[in-house]
Amino acid sequence: MTPSPDCDLCPRLYTYRLDNRIKEPSWHNAPVPSFGALDAQILIIGLAPGVRGANRTGRPFTGDYAGLLLYTTLQKFGLAAGDYRERADDGLTLDNCRITNAVRCVPPQNLPTTAEAHACNRFLADEIRRMPNLRAILTLGTVAHAMALRAAGLKPGAYKFVHGARHQIKPGLAIINSYHVSRYNTSTKRLNSAMFESAVRDLIAAIKD
């Protein structure tokens, strides 16, 4: 189950998308689909599309700063191949990895409300159910962490978000936490490349344990 291009579950996000379609008719301006194969063992969950990033290009973490750290790190660890050129048609591919967002539509000021995250959680829950080989989830930020727990049938507060933590939420399924790869987090030094690489390293270890 994926949201339709004209999904109106969240009135604020729906209206914002329509406004963006008028301003930028050549952009994607619709719920952003996941990237990567459903038979992957790894799922990476971000917060929501950026207005000039995935909302423009139609691919998660593509077209804005956040994708630079994410995709170059995935390439370094063999989870992505090809050239990341900030376009959905750049030929980049993922290996044993899938990427999605907790909220599929771009929110104003890049911040969805709690109600919007809850409304969109049905799509994340369905995604997790449709990944038969899923062994590890990397959550980028507190909202993605809480929504991953909810989608997996657990209370959002069942496991506390801590950067670098690994939570074994079910037999054979772990959640690894990382701060979001946003420009804000890297510019304020809340997250650096070494910290993120450590989280991805643990993510890969989790599918082998």
Count of individual helical segments: 7
Oligomer, anyone? single chain
Rg from alpha-carbon coordinates: 16 Å
CATH topology (level 3) name: Uracil-DNA Glycosylase, subunit E
What's the rounded overall pLDDT mean? 96
Number of domains: 1
Beta-strand portion reads 15-25%
**Count of DSSP strands:** 8
N→C terminal distance: 30 Å
What's the level 1 CATH class? Alpha Beta
CATH architectural designation:
3-Layer(aba) Sandwich
User: How are the strands ordered across the major sheet?
Assistant: 1-5-2-6-8-7
Description:
The structure is a single chain. The chain has helices spanning 11-23, 54-57, 65-76, 114-129, 142-151, 183-187, 193-208, and strands spanning 35-36, 42-46, 80-81, 93-94, 97-101, 136-140, 166-170, 173-178. The chain is an alpha/beta fold and 209 residues long. The chain has a 6-stranded mixed sheet with strand order 1-5-2-6-8-7, with helices on both faces. Helix 4 crosses helix 5. The two termini are 30 Å apart.
